[in-house]
Amino acid sequence: MVLRVHNTMIGQMEEFQPINGNKVGMYVCGINTYDDSHMGHAKSAVTFDVIRRHLVRKGYDVTYVINFTDIEDHCIERTIKLGIPLDELTERYIGEYHKDMGKLGVKKANIYPVASHHMKEIIEAIQKLIDKGFAYESGGEVYFDVMAVAEFGKLSHRKRDDMLAGARVAVDERKRGPLDFVLWKNKKPEEPFWESPWSEGRPGWHIECSVMSMKYLGESFELHGGGTELVFPHHENEIMQSEALSDKTFVKYWLHGGLMNVGDEKMSKSLNNFFTIKDVVKQYDPLVVRFFLLNTHYRKPIDFNQKALEEAAQALGRMQNTLDSVLADAENAIEGEDAFAQVARESVAKFDAAMDEDFNTRDAIASIFEFSREVNKYLESGSKKSSLDEIISTFKIYDEILSIFKFEKGTQDHMMAPLMDVIIDIRQKARAEKNFKLADEIRDRLKELGIEIQDTADDVKWKIIRTSR
RNA sequence: GCCGAGGUAACAUAGCGGCUAUGUGGGGGCCUGCAGAGCCUCAUACGGGAGUUCAACUCUCCCCCUCGGCUCCA
Predict the structure, then answer these.
(1) CB of A140 under 7 A from strand B?
(2) N or C: which end of chain A has fewer CB within 10 A?
(3) Contact status, residue A68 vs residue A112, Cβ threshold 8 Å
């Protein structure tokens, strides 16, 4: 199957074809390390995690890089406010990031470069841009000269002249043109700084991503991702800098995810309408949160609200119920084969096809719902061991990409099963004697403990309630 | 103003030039002592207008509305 991706550069879908063989370089803009991550960051991390997983499943040799930017206004403000060194702040929030994303089942990237650890390379890159005539020094600062590049605005599809005409920002007298952006800034009192040929100061935003992505992935690589709000100016400027440095095409495919909204506004620190991952995960199972994020195509915005999370919990529970039944039945299944394995194979084909269309997790998930219904019917009609195993491996394939299911038993305690047998046995006796009051009491009290009893036609099932709501 | 993404049944989301979409919620039924889970089934759709076509929710054009970017931001 051919993978197609939506490339922001051309504004449409195209076939994905790596530059060399099956090696894929993938760079995603991580966070600024000055505070806990919120749900918007979670959306980005989970989106690109799934994209990476799908590429790996398709056999690509993926090198995944996520950067941490720790030299920017907010971080600097924080170090001064907290009175701690920048390094300490950086390390603290990198640690928190990994904790939060780990909870959400995000697999680690291969490399996590940190801006402040690449100062030497950043300064070299700025010097090279000056030498090549793409940047100029002015009062101890260095600016990128937007007029020096042939192509401007190719990612965000803007014209240089339109931008010049509508420039909102007051022109800094140190700049030659209003669209020029800073590569190196003078230090201000109290601020951390680095020595450079131009002044004691620090790099501007954008340059660190050019430097770090090219260092780890080469001058040209396949995928660069981030939220849509980064298209302009961040990614646009990255392209200009990088291509000015290398004289090569920087990135082949640009992927941008829709933003997390709250009501009709995007979730962001500056609007102060954010929900941290830590808080959300306290209230909802991380798998529910992950499912919630993947239940909408990544390029679309998602509205964050209670009702949507509740619905996600309910919907995910439906699939998990099916899987739980299969896992339970598989333990004492009748040996033998039947035709159901074919249904499973068709379902996987449908799932893969959806993922190949620009990582359409929504559509892929719809195919799992359909599969679940088929499985539920199959279970009622009598099942065979080989097919149950096939169903479990099918769910494992889905989970390899989405990571939203639980396969382990709800408890590790080996006494649990025999104990439940005793309780259920007693309750069945009560039921046989029509002592429903007692039978219901047992059921209700177990439910309070998080154990659900289900009476079926031929036996009684129990399970640990997994999906918290 | 400029650039970009959208407007799908009660709600949230997919999708395709013709084959009554997925989940949540609601109605009815099966199963059950009851409940839950599950299965079956019903209702409610494609912002507005024009055009192309044998046929458009799906293509083209115009209009309306929403969101994002143009300033820090996943």
Answers:
(1) no
(2) N
(3) yes
pLDDT in tens, A88-128: 999 999 999 999 999 999 999 999 999 999 999 999 999 99
- List chain B nucleotides near protein: any atom < 7 Å from a Cβ: 1-6, 11-16, 21-25, 31-40, 66-74
- Check whether residue A179 and residue A321 sit in a common domain: no
- Name which of A155, A153, A154, A131 is nearest A142 in CA terms: A131
Question: Is A305 part of a structural domain of the chain?
Answer: no
Residues A393 and A428 in one domain: no
Which pTM does this prediction carry?
Answer: 0.93
Residue A120 neighbours by CB distance under 10 Å: 10
- Taking a C-beta distance cutoff of 8 angstroms, is the pair A202, A217 a contact? no
CA→C1' distance for A230 and B73 (Å): 8
Mean pLDDT lowest for which of A118-127, A221-230, A334-343, A458-467? A458-467
Are A379 and A268 in a shared domain?
A: no
Co-location of A190 and A324 in the same domain? no
Q: How open is the CA angle A324-A293-A101, to the nearest 5 degrees?
A: 90
The whole-number pLDDT of residue A468 equals 46
A257 touches strand B (CB under 7 A): yes
Residues A241 and A363 in one domain: no
Both A29 and A158 in one domain: the answer is yes
Q: Is A383 helix (H, G, I), strand (E, B) or coil?
A: coil
- Does the CB of A110 sit below 7 A from strand B? no
Same domain for A249 and A126: yes
CA–C1' gap, A295 and B30, in angstroms: 31
Rounded CA-CA distance A413/A416 in Å is 6
Nearest nt to the CA of A269 via C1' is B73
Averaged confidence pLDDT in chain A: 91
Q: Helices A340-356 and A361-380 meet at what angle, rounded to 10? A: 170
Question: Which residues are A15's β-sheet partners?
Answer: A4
Percent of chain A at pLDDT > 70 equals 97
pLDDT at A466: 58
pLDDT band at A85 (very low <50, low <70, confident <90, very high): very high
Answer whether residue A166 shows pLDDT above 90.
no
Domain limits for position A372? 315-402
Reply yes or no on whether the pLDDT at A295 is more than 50: yes
The CATH code of the domain that includes A376 is 1.20.120.640
CA distances from residue A341 to A129, A145, A293, A344, A381 in whole angstroms, order as listed: 60, 62, 30, 5, 15
Residue A231 contacts by C-beta under 8 Å, 6 or more apart in sequence?
A8, A155, A156, A254, A256
